[in-house]
Design brief:
By secondary structure, the chain is an alpha/beta fold. The chain is built from 19 helices and 21 strands. The protein is elongated, with a radius of gyration of 29 Å. The strands form five sheets. Strands 8-13-12-11-9-10 form a six-stranded mixed sheet. The protein has a six-stranded mixed sheet with strand order 16-21-20-19-17-18, with helices on both faces. The chain has a five-stranded parallel sheet with strand order 3-2-1-4-5, with helices on both faces. The chain has three domains: about 5-195, 3-Layer(aba) Sandwich (Rossmann fold), CATH 3.40.50.1380; about 235-355, Cytidine Deaminase, domain 2, CATH 3.40.140.20; about 385-500, Cytidine Deaminase, domain 2 (3-Layer(aba) Sandwich), CATH 3.40.140. Strand 9 (about 265-270) and strand 10 form a beta hairpin. The chain is about 40% helix and about 20% strand.
Length: about 500
């Protein structure tokens, strides 16, 4: 279908100017537009007709009504070649619109802001845009519809190859993509209003397929990846990612996001094996690796600074599945790429920006939905509950340990210094067992716990876990508090001269 007239109305104007210029200069397409899009085109000396001039009806109601008009939707929906449709369009002065280029008000971005008001959210609900997209997509046999700037090149390529026409195959593909986009947009609106109303009675989630995976957690399970994972991580080298790799990458990115100082973390099965911070990234690696030199085999390494050749030299000495960093210096990348199967992942942006608002898990007969655990301390911050105040060095260690223990499977116990982990106990049925494992792991690594701190993801239900940590050498503890036996635990700390901090917030991770 040869394109003679296009309607362009965009919030995201990426690539608009060269695309519109090609339409007008190469193919003589008449462009209809509105608002800011029309203004930009005029500034760029690209011929444009305002929709209000095309329809003969002004924009009204603060711009809420501008494209909702029979001359717009008639031009999109009428069946070309249908005798009755042709007659009615001629009688009513309706001219065909062959190309619709529209993306929608940024509703999702608006409601993602923590300070957004309900009024702002409502004003960012697009009405005319989805209506035009749906009309054009319904009539894809005759109309080309584009909602993603990434598709401009494909449309122009077909027009150049086809004398101004696009193929039915492309139009059908773009229509399906558009219906998916408008459907996701509607779900985002419904989901937000559902939450705001506090009477929500449904939960809906739909994400695009990224890739089919070879298998799931085990080889007999089928699996796929959905969503926008590739917007946050770019694979630079190595084998394709597995289901377990992706889980570990996500856990690693969440953990490293807790640290602003140069930090290296090593994870296995989503649990931290070791974490170290140091201005010298190689020294940060040494601290992390020293915590446990056995578990990292086949693990995940994550850094919050670019990988240098010096760091790559030490990292390459152990077998790892994945290394994640903001970037890899050329020499470091060349060195690591000698390992054919090692996956090198560039983290393109902080993981928090790409996390779903909710943590969703399947259960028998349905799903569980909860807010993500993005907070470290309770609303009142931390509280020192013992007679002895922590020293400045202990306080730094307590805050370091608290950031790490948040990412360890419950029951979680972590011994740390100011800038490194010393022993990690994860996922045990009792907290005292986790403490014993952490002590054993530190001993196995030949790391002294004298003068260390101990972090617990939830309260000590009895003094025994705290006593075990004190006997191992810990001089301070950090935990949420809230047990009916808090006074007994505080007394046990005071008897041993320990300092203890309550955070008012636990971090269970099942």
């Amino acid at each position: 279908m040869k394109i003679a007239r296009a309607l362009i109305s965009l919030s995201d104007k990426t690539g608009l100017v060269p695309f519109a210029r090609a339409l007008t200069e190469e193919f003589g397409v008449e462009i209809l537009s509105t608002g800011g899009t029309a203004k930009l085109l005029r500034e760029e000396k690209i011929p444009v007709t305002e929709v209000a001039d095309f329809t003969g009806f002004p924009e009204i109601l603060s711009g809420r009504v501008k494209t909702l008009h029979p001359k717009i939707h008639g031009g999109l929906l009428y069946l070309r070649g249908h005798p009755e449709h042709e007659r009615q369009t001629q009688e009513n002065g309706i001219r065909p619109i062959d190309l619709v280029v529209v993306n929608l008000y940024p509703f999702q971005e608006t409601v993602a802001r923590p300070d957004v008001t309900l009024e702002e959210a409502i004003e960012n609900i697009d009405i005319g845009g989805p209506s035009m997209l749906r009309s054009a997509s319904k009539n894809y046999r005759s109309v080309t519809v584009v909602t993603d700037p990434a598709d401009y090149a494909a449309v122009l390529a077909e027009m150049r190859a086809g004398g101004g026409e696009t193929t039915l195959k492309l139009r059908e593909h773009l229509a399906v993509k558009t219906f998916s986009a408008t459907s996701a947009y509607d779900r985002a609106i419904a989901g937000y209003l559902n939450r705001e109303s506090q009477t929500g009675s449904f939960y809906d989630l739909s994400l695009p397929l990224v890739t089919r995976l070879r298998y799931g957690e085990n080889s007999h399970q089928e699996a796929s990846l959905y969503g926008g994972f590739e917007e946050y991580f770019q694979k630079l080298h190595g084998k394709e990612l597995s289901f377990n790799n992706i889980l570990d990458i996500s856990a690693a990115a969440e953990l490293i996001g807790e640290f602003e100082e140069p930090t290296v973390a090593i994870l296995k099965h989503t649990n931290p094996c070791g974490v170290g911070s140091d201005p010298d990234l190689r020294e940060a690696w040494n601290k992390a690796f020293a915590t446990d030199k056995q578990a990292p085999f086949g693990g995940i390494i994550v850094l919050n600074r670019p990988v240098t050749e010096a760091v790559a030299e030490v990292i390459k000495e152990i077998f790892s599945e994945v290394i994640i960093a903001p970037d890899f210096e050329p020499d470091a990348r060349a060195l690591l790429q000698r390992k054919k199967n090692l996956r090198l992942m560039r983290q393109l942006q902080p993981a928090g920006a790409g996390m779903l608002l909710h943590d969703v898990r399947s259960v028998v007969g349905g799903i569980l939905v909860q807010d993500r655990d993005r907070t470290l301390l309770g609303p009142d911050g931390y509280k020192i509950v013992t007679k002895r105040q922590p020293s400045e060095a202990e306080m730094r260690a307590l805050m370091f340990g608290w950031r790490v223990v948040k990412h360890v499977k419950s029951n979680a116990i972590v011994f740390t210094g100011e800038d490194r982990t010393l022993g990690v106990g994860a996922g045990q049925m009792s907290r005292v067992d986790s403490a014993r494992i952490a002590v054993w792991k530190a001993g196995d690594a030949k790391l002294s716990l004298q003068g260390s701190i101990v972090a617990s993801d939830a309260f000590f239900p009895f003094p025994d876990g705290l006593i075990a940590a004190a006997e191992a050498g810990a001089t301070a503890a950090i935990q949420p508090g809230g047990s009916v036996r808090d006074e007994e635990v505080i007394a046990a700390a005071n008897e041993r001269g320990m300092a203890m901090v309550f955070t008012g917030l636990r971090h269970f991770r099942h």
